[in-house]
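Lab meeting tomorrow. Please check the following:
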Amino acid sequence: MSEKKRRGSDDWYTPKHVFDALGCTFDLDVSAPKEGPRYVPAAQWLWERGLEQDWFGCVWMNPPYGHMAGKFEWMKKFISHGNGIALMPDRTSAPWWQWAAPQMDALLFVTPKIQFERPDGSIGEQPGNGTSLMALGERGVAALHSAQAAGLGVILTTNLSARRAA
């Protein structure tokens, strides 16, 4: 039985400690829950059709964790936008992940695994896979460094910045 059928919703929210560790504010949450943002420190939120709307500034992206094709679409838009942090499952062997990861300025592998919150405020069980925070742009990279210093995980930095300058 799916979590949605048991709990009435398949929405899972990023817990506050993640944002505390990042220590930054965002200009836009591009995939906010319909019930309203929980802890995302953003100036504005998109509740519906985030892929179809214009993005601006430094974005927070925790998109629906649906099918692989959906992840490609969200990551394409994120990479095209080029500024922010994406919270994604760290499925390192998945085609979408292998395509997107080398295009990031920095990646943070979160440890321990994030136990996401349900709409009713309860904490979910230990997930089967971990989480990657994927950053593009100076603000995103700085936030990942803050999160690593706060003990949220370990950063891997790519050479994208050098390739962009060339």
Notes: The chain has one domain: 9-165. Residues 9-165 form a domain with the Rossmann fold fold (CATH 3.40.50). The CA atoms of residues 17 and 152 lie 9 Å apart. The helical segments are 3-7, 16-22, 68-81, 95-100, 138-149, 160-165.
